[in-house]
Structures are given as C-alpha cells and as structure tokens.
Amino acid sequence: MRASKYLRWGCFAAVAMLSACGGRQNQQTMLHPVGPMSGRIESLWWFIFVIAVAVFVIVWIFLAGAAAKRKVQEQLPPDVYPDPSYEQKLLRRVMVATGITVIVLFAILGHSVITSKYMNSLQSKNPVSIQVYGHQWWWEVQYPNPDVSQWVTTANEIHVPVGVPVVLQTGSRDVIHSFWAPNIHGKRDLIPGQSSALWFQVDKEGTYRGQCAEFCGHQHAHMAFYIVAETPEKFQAWLEQQKKPAPEPSNDVLKHGKEVLEKGTCVMCHTVRGTNAGSRLGPDLTHVGSRLSIAAGTLPNNAGSLGGWISDPQAIKPGVRMPPNPMSSEDLQALVAYLQSLK
Amino acid sequence: MSTVDIVSASPGTDATRHERLKDTWGDPPGIRGWFTTVNHKRIGTRYIITAFIFFLLGGILAVLMRLQLARPENHFLNPDQYNQIFTMHGTTMMFLFAVPMMFEALSVYVIPLMVGARNIAFPRLNAFSYYIYVFGGIMLWVAFVYNTGPDVGWFAYVPLSGPAYTPGKRADFWAQMITFTELSALAVAVEISVTIMKLRAPGMSLNRMPMFCWSEFVTALMVIFAMPAVMLSSTMLLMDRLVATHFFNPAEGGDALLYQHLFWFFGHPEVYIIFIPGTGIVSTIIAAFSRRKIFGYLGLVLSTVATGFIGFGVWVHHMFATGLPQLSDNFFTAASLMIVIPTGVQFFCWIATLWSGKLHFELPMWWIGGFFFVFLIGGLTGLMLAAVPLDWQVHDTYFVVAHFHYVLLGGAVFPLFGAIYYWFPKVTGRMLGETLGKWHFWLFFVGFNLTFFPMHILGMRGMPRRIYTYPVEMHWGTVNALETLGASLMGLAVLAFLANVVKSYRSGVMAGANPWLAGTLEWGTSSPPPNYNFLDLPTAGGREPLWENAPDQPVVTGVREDIRAVLVTKPMDAEPDHLTLSPSPTIWPFLAALAVTALFIGSIFTPWAIVWGSVPIAVTLIGWFWPTKKESENKKGMEKWEKK
Amino acid sequence: MGEEVIKRRELYVGDLPTVVFGHRSLIWWGTIGMMAIEGTMFAIVIGSYFYLRTRTTDWPPGLMPPALLWGILNTVVFLLSVVPNQITKKVAEKGQLGPVRIGLVVMCIVGVANLVIRVFEFASLNCQWDANAYASILWFLIGLHTVHLATDWTDTVVLTVLFFTGPIEGKRYMDVSENSDYWYFVVLTWLPIWFVIYFAPRLL
To answer: What is d(CA B529, CA B581) in angstroms, rounded to the nearest whole number?
Structure first.
C-alpha cells in the first residue's frame, strides 16, 4: 500500500516538474504540439513516461527494501549454499518480474507501431507541396508550380495554411542537415543524394521556430527557420505576393540601393527576381523585406541588423559563407533600405 | 589427470620457490625492463593509468563546453574551438577512455589473476597493443594541441567529414586514430578470449567461471565482430579523402548512408562493449558484499550472451531520422526493446542477490547503488528512444545527450569507480580512504544528476546537441547554468578521488591478501600480486573458489619454475591439457608498434607511406617472431611430443 | 627444518605434452581469432559492395566488367595449392624436418605464383579505383585480399628461412601447421571474393 502511494506521489511530482519545464506558448518544444503529428508523439511520450516512472519507483522500492532489511555491520562469512527452497521462491519472483517486463515491452511496442503507422496516414489527402533543401547554414524553401514563372523560392521561412496536410520534399545541397520543428513534427535528416517526404499538418495559427538538428559544421548553431501557419486565405495572399518579382524602387535612395546591389558583389551569390542578380549560392532575396529574420533566424529583420550583417557577417556568424562587404555608409544605408522595401 | 596424494613435487621451501619464480618471471632491471616487459599486471596498470589520464583530459574538455554553454550568446569559445572540443571530448571518452578502460585495461589486469594463470595468453601482443593504443592517443592529442583536432563529431558523418567539406588534416587524424585504437582492442580481444578459453585453472569449468570473466569474454567476442566495421568505414573515409575513391560520394555512385550503417553496425555494439564489463563488475561486487554466491548465475550468463547477440541487431535505431522504410524502423524498434529483457533479468537477479544476502556496505557498494540509480534512468529513456516517432523528436537533442551519459556513466563509470575501490587494494596492497571516498561518491553522484538530468528537459524544449551557443529568447540559459554548476561538482569529485589515490597509495591502510573476504581467485594471492601471480597454481572447486574450495583443495604441481612454463587447459571443463612456454621480455613489440605508428601517421600525408612503411614493420615483426637461442633451448628442454 | 614436510593434495601435470596441434594449442585459437576478425572484414566489404549496387541502375556503371582470364588462373592455382599445403601441415604435425622444408619451399613458390598473377588481375579490372564507387569498392576488395595473401606469403618465407637456419624446436612445427591453416583461410576467402569481383558485375 505504501508503495502505491509513493508511486502515485512520484508520478505526480515528475509530471508537475516536466510540465512546468515545458516552456511558454510558441516556444520550440515538443510538449506544446500544434498539429496531429506532434500531438500523437506527445501522447506516446506520456505513455512511456508514466511506465518509466513506475518502473523506476518499483525497482527502487525493492532495492531500498533489500538495503534496509538485510544490512549488517560486519562482514559475515559467505553463504555458499543458500537455502534451496528460498532460492526457488526467489526464482519464481524473478520469472514473474521478467514476464511483466515482456508484457510492458509489448505495450510500448504496440503503441509505438500504431503511432508510426499514423505518421504515414496523412498521405492520401491532397497536400500543399513544399520543397526544403539544407545548405550550410540556411534553408532553401520552394513552392513548386507547373508554371515556372509562378515558382516561389524563399529562405528560412515556411508559410503553411492551417488545417491542411503539407508534404515537405526534402534534400540537401551539401552535407547532412536535419529539419526539426518540434511543435509540429519530429525531425527528418536531409541527406545529399537522397530525397524524402515528410508529412504534417498545423492546426493552430502561429509562428513556430525550428532548427537544424544534425551537426553540419561551423554554424550549425545558427541554422534556424520559422514555420508561419496562417489561415488559407492569408497563405494564398502571401504566396501570390511571393510569386511577383521584386518591386521597382520608388525613390532615389531605393534606386541607389538597387544599383549597389547590382554592381556590387551581392549578385555573385544571391537572386533578386526582376534585377540582374540571379545566382543561387545564397538565399533568394526577392522578398527579403517580408521575412521575420535574417541569417537563418540569427537576427531580427530590421535596418540595424541588416546593415551589420551586410558589412561584417563574419562577426555575427563566424565561418559563414558570406564575405565581409566594406562599403560607404551611404551605399550601405541605400542597400539596406532597398532590401527592406522588397516585401 | 588424477589427483594424487604425494609429497610436494615442487622442490624447495616456499621462500626459495618464491625467489626462483621471481627471477623467472621478472623483467630486466630499470629502463630496459620498462620497454621490454610482457607482464600483464605492468601493462594492465599502464592501460589503467593511461585510460584514466584520457578520462581526465576528456573531462577538462567537458568543463570547457559547460562553461561556454553556461549562458546564452557566450563568447568564451568560438565555434571552431567548440566544434573541435566536443569532437575531441566524444572521441577521447569513447575510443581512448571507455573501451580501453572497461575492456582492455580491466581485463588485461584482472582476468589472468581471476582464472589463476601466470600470465595472459600472447603477452607480447599485449605489450604491442598497449603501445599502439597510447601512440594513437598521443597522435590525436598532439594534433589537437596544434589546432588540427577533428571537428566533425565523434562519428564523423560524411559528407561533412569528406574531402569536400573538411579540407586539411583534421578528419584524417580522427580516422587514423580509429585504426590505432581498434587495432589495439582487437589484439586484446584475441588475447583475452584465448586466456579465458585456455588458461583457466583446472576445475574452473565454464559453469564455474566468474561473471566478470563471462562479461569480458562476451565483450571480447563483440569486439572481434564489431570493430572491423568501423576500421573499414574509417579506412574508406581516409581513402575518399586521400586517394580520391568515391565510397561516400553520391555524385559518383557512392552513398552517405553506407557510412552510417557501417559506423553504427560497430557503434551500437560499442555501447555494449562498454556496458557489459560494467555488468560483470556489478555482479562481482554484489556477490562479495552480499556475502553469498550470485543469484541466478545461469540467467546472468545467458543474459550477457543474449545482450551480445541482440546488440548487433539494433544499430538502425541511431538512424531512424534518416527516413528509412517504416517496416525496417519497426523491426529495429522491436529489437531495441527486446534487449531490455536480458537487462531486466540481470537487474532482477542482482536485486534477488541483495534481497537474500547479508549486505555489508563498503565504498564499492556505494557505486553499485549509484549504478542502479543512474543506469536505470538511462535504460528507461532508452525505451523512449527505441520508439520511432518519439525518437524523431528527441534524436540529436540534449535529451539524447542526457540519455547516453546516463547509460554510459551509469553503466560504465559508476561500476568502474566501484571496481577501482574494490581492486585498488589488490593492485597496490593498500585500501583507499573512507572519508575522501564518500566525498568522491556524493559529489560525483549529485554533480552528475545536476549536470545531466536537466538535459532531458532541455532536449524536449528544443535544444539540439552540438550547438556552440543559443539565443537568449530560447530561455535555455538558467537550466544550462545549473548544469555547469553540476559539472563543476563532478570536477571536484574527481579531484577528491585523485587526492584519495595519492594519499592512500602512500599511507593507506595495508590491505592483506583478501580485505573483502571475497571468493574469486585473484584474492588468493598476496596484494600486490608477485610477478608470477601465484606461488601454488590454484585449482577451482566452485564458482567462488576461495569460499567453496575444500580445505585440502589440490594445487597444481609439475609446472617448471625455472623457466616460464604455463599450464594450458581444455576450453569446456578446464582439465589440464598441455604445458607451454610463455614468452619472455623483449623490445620487439615496442619497436613494431613504433614502425606501425610511422606507417599510420605517414599514410595521412602520403599513400606511399604504406609501401615504405611496411618494410620496418616486416623487419620488426620478423625480429619479434625469430626465436632467441635461449628461448629455443628452454623450449627444447621441456619438449615432449604427444605419443601417437 | 628438513623434517617439516607439508602434506597437501596435488594435481601433478609434469607429464603433459608440450607440442600439440590443432585446437589444443594456443596459437590455433589465436589464428582463429585473427580469421574471425578478417573474415568479418571481408564479409562487410562484400556487404558494402552489394549495398552500393542498390544505389545505381546499371552495374558496373559505365565500365566494362573485369576480364576473366587471370582471375580464373589464380583461382586454379589457389585450389591446387591446397594439396602441397595439406601435405606440409601433415608432415609438420609428424615433426619430419626434411619434408617440412620441401613443403615450405613449394608453398613459397606457390605464393609467388599467386602474387604475380594478382598483378595481372589488377591490370585486367578494366577500371581505376577513382573512376566511381563501383571501382573503389572493387579495388578495395581485391586489395584487402592481396594484403592477406602477401602477409601469409611473407610468413611462409620467414618460416622457410627459419627451417633452414634454425633454431628449430617443436613450437616451430606448430607454427608451420598454423601457417597452413591460415593459407586455407586465404584460399577460402578468395572464392567468394573472386565470385563477387568477376561474376557479380556480369550477373547483376
């Protein structure tokens, strides 16, 4: 009786502690699922967690019991021929415990298999298809379209409609990365030379952070992304906006900014559709002004951080592929203003 | 062989026999003896000390990492340093500490004593294996000190570690270090399995073999079948990097996942290679301090063997997130869960032993208690990782970091400290101090849990492993600071331990032959044991010979004491089979190890090293093999062919 | 002092032999351990070969399969070598010095033949190791086997010299016996490797 009381108390304490540590709303955590995938995984987690706590407590009740009951002060002569009937009794108990272990394992296996089966069940629906490619150290995101001019390429930010199944076609452009947005789904490795599909659905509007989970070199730590889940209407509007080429500069400062971009080194790596910048080594900047962050979730997207990033990215993200770009403050301000205008 | 009741056939008094045996089995004096010794205790002690030094070095790196992570956006280390440090930490702890300590060091020192032999089988190979190990470790650390430490993680996934993304020599040193350490582990695996099969004291049939011997035997077999995989994967990586092969290059038909399959086909058995010796230690210490024979011997043996087998069938659970077919995922979930059954049986048998014994708490037992606490948590989080969907969430996060530290420190380091407190009196003749010992235990236990338990929570809250820093707004800072505090407590604990060792080595309480009144054969000789191990070669009348042997238990006679004669027994029943001569001290293994080292390091810089480097290796191996006149005469002197 | 004789039961083993062959000897167990390690290596490399096979559509990708002639010739030599090998093993186990010397010399010559033919085999692989993954694994497989062949041949040469110069005692005959066992390993592992190298590209 005492045992079961301790057990209940222990479970309660552990659950309370973990819930408290679960983090705030919209935090990057698997304990606040916002879709069916992460939801099912969370329930699997609690199932195994309760079993684990119970096992731990029971084992320790027996260990502590043995210690309390059998402890002696001095070193007694060894028991070479233990009482056979008592050994028989112990053997039966060990066998019962082993049997229970097997049953518990089957329960876990069953729950696990059912959950993984569910993970594949979304596939029959008509999904939104998105392509994600890992780069050292940013994410290339594409919304494919049969009409190539309607094809959308963006970076580090994935917009999805809520309540609709989404399939991510994943791949890597260099080393292995791992795509992970814990509030939405488990992770999937992006392996060069292989492609795979990850299905999920987000049921709650919001912005959810994710980040690379497979060590991929120097700046593995700064390789985050955001999944922006919005109503289907908002999502459609966003997608239409993204399909457009970059807006023409509307004043002299912006015009100068565009000039700096086109004549400087930016064009060697970046694309801005509608200008002569068409290289694909770095992120597509056509609508960079509309994004939440720059440098793969490293900095908020504002004039200050953009300016700092352009002039000396190595100070912010040492080892990043982007070189320093020394330029006059006038040029820099114009460039920043132009990039910010690319909504 | 019949047992006969005769007057001693070993001529002379015990004192004169002692002198004679000491001369026969002794090393040349001074520095020559240092480099030529083939005594398993000297080499075992070196293994233990070297592996412990690597443990300390790896621990220092751990503290540096904890300092960097103690607060968000910290600039204590830059990413380049951090990446080298975490790679070096993992590599050092796994390849230069855990496997060499739990397998090579402990078994080389303890097993020959435990089976009642005068020396290990193939003692020169044993010396060679030690030198190879230490040279490989030194190579890696010198490279690290010169800012050429590997920075691709301890499993060095391709293509990140390949020629395109890690130019320079960093990954080459890592890959070649694997060759060094695996070569040494494989050599010891052969020695230990042959020692256990063929050099057991008469009467120590398989069903009387101590649990520690069983566990190291299963470990040796696992080493033999697992380590070739990683030697091959690291060799293929080296060839991709140095001679432009394309094993892992998808553009030319190679495959990045092949590397992962090969690595984890070794890598998961590796975990059991580290953990199974720990179970042997737990069984040994529990039996000694419960003052009874271990409960469920057969169940424990079968569980150990089963763990060894199943350990080869679970490697894909390190690769669930790679998107393999669901069917194979479920198979490997089932296999990974199945391995809980033998572990469960072991736990139940240990608990039954404690439950029915007369427990006596000495320092080694505290660490067994720590083992039960820590390893159990690690095993239970292992259940979570075995479930594929849950693994997709916690894989490669701090949850996994917590899990494997609970498993590895729980399954290996806690039993290891128990083993050190248990066998230190045998090795040095003195007891380790009680007070410092308790400080050591409690600081380590509390520090460990403070460091690693919160990592479970961080992992679920989204913190991936191997990131050198994290933004303030992730709110991971407080928990990380707490962990850094825990790590510093662990550091203090290790300092207390070192102080205890130094103090006790100088002025500890004298131990006597058998301070714990334990039952296995190593306690049947003086502490520290003489260079020939046993004055009278023992026979075993039960699983715990010192408890169970008859008062007039026979001793082995007729083994010459003026030359290094040893008795070889049969593998199953350990009946005496034949006599052979154990090799004498020689410099050749040391020279051969130097030659092999030259080839290995040279081949990092030019493939031609394999050509010119093989000449000195051949010369040294021939020198090693070539019999000296004296040895040949000794052999002839005792030679007896079987009558056909 | 001399009066005091301690009486105890003893297990007298002084009459046991010191020269034994096969699974009774330590060196046999050591050799088995080596074979287990190296056999595992061969198995894993062959496994990798078939794994890489699954990653492309045609096999060999864009290359000719290895020409058969020299491979067949070497296999024949390997198979025939079993006869002198077995004879050498048997005369060693009887301790006959003269026949052992002859057997070892023959085995040295056989090894030279194998190594020379192996050079022509490399030349008839129809690819360089850096052509693609298929070529890499092919070279790796045959290279690994060649290392074992060369090692055992060197071993045989050293034993041969030893048997002509001395010192010789029973232990050396045990070495010859184990060297023969290891040669069997070299021959037996060659058969699947030969099949994979020469026929897998034609059949897959």
So the answer is: 21
For B360-375, the pLDDT digits (tens) are: 899 999 999 999 999 9
Q: What angle do CA B163, B167, B172 make, to 5 degrees?
A: 75
Q: Which residue of B has its CA nearest to A71?
A: B359
The whole-angstrom separation of Cα B432 and Cα B420 is 9
Is there a cis peptide before residue C167, judged by omega within 30 degrees of 0?
A: yes
Which of C36, C55, C170 shows the shortest C-beta gap to B639? C170
Written as one letter, the residue type at C143 is: G
Residue that the structure tokens 């037992």 belong to: B365
Q: For B384, which residue in chain A has the nearest alpha carbon? A: A48
Helix (H) or strand (E) holding B579: strand B576-581
Q: How far is A279 from chain B (nearest CA, A)?
A: 21
Residues 6 or more apart in contact with residue B161 via CB below 8 angstroms = B150, B152, B171, B174, B175, B237
Rounded distance between C-alpha atoms, residue B615 and residue B637, angstroms: 34
Query: Which residues in chain B have their CB less than 8 angstroms from residue A186's CB?
Result: 321, 389-393, 395
Count Cβ atoms below 10 Å from residue B578 Cβ, excluding itself: 21
Q: How confident is the model at residue B2 (pLDDT cuts 50, 70, 90)?
A: very low
- Contact present, B11 and C14 (Cβ < 8 Å): no
Residues contacting B464, CB < 8 A, separation 6+? A180, A211, A212, A213, A220, B396, B397, B398
What are the CA-CA distances from residue B80 to residues A214, B70, B71, B601, C191 (Å)?
17, 18, 18, 24, 48
- Copy the structure tokens of residue B23: 């001369």
Chain B residue numbers touching A43 (CB-CB < 8 A) = none
**Computed from CA positions of residues B382, B383, B387, B389, in that sequence, does the dihedral angle turn out positive or negative?**
negative
Chains with 3+ CB–CB pairs under 8 A to B are A, C
Residue A14 has pLDDT above 70, yes or no: no
- Helix or strand run (H / E) with residue A169: strand A166-172
CB atoms within 10 A of CB B44: 24
Distance CA B290, CA C50 (A): 53
Tens digit of pLDDT for each residue in B549-592? 988 899 999 999 999 999 999 999 999 999 999 999 999 999 99
Mutate to test the interface with B, among C3, C6, C16 (most CBs of B within 10 A): C16
Size of interface B-C (CB pairs under 8 A): 215
Q: How many Å lie between the alpha carbon of B464 and the closest alpha carbon of chain A?
A: 5
Is the confidence at residue A123, as pLDDT, over 80?
no
What is the tens place of the pLDDT at every residue in A36-47? Answer: 999 999 999 999
> What is residue B66's three-state secondary structure?
helix
Inter-chain touch B349–A38, beta carbons under 8 Å: no
A128: left (phi over 0), alpha (psi -120 to 50) or beta: beta
A230's enclosing H/E stretch is strand A224-230
CA-nearest residue to B468 within chain A is A221
Say what the pTM is: 0.95
Contact criterion met (CB < 8 Å) for A67 and B475: no
- C-beta atoms of C48 and B247 within 8 A: yes
* Interface chains of chain C (3 or more CB pairs under 8 Å): B
CA B223 to chain C, closest CA, distance in angstroms equals 9
pLDDT confidence of residue A8: 57
Neighbouring residues of A96: CB distance < 8 A, sequence distance ≥ 6: none
For residue C140, count other CB atoms closer than 10 A to its CB.
20
Q: Are A30 and B460 in contact (CB under 8 A)?
A: yes
**% of residues, chain C, pLDDT over 90:** 87
C107 and C183 Cβ atoms separated by less than 8 Å: yes
Q: Which of B250, B247, B238, B605 is nearest to C130 (CA)?
A: B247
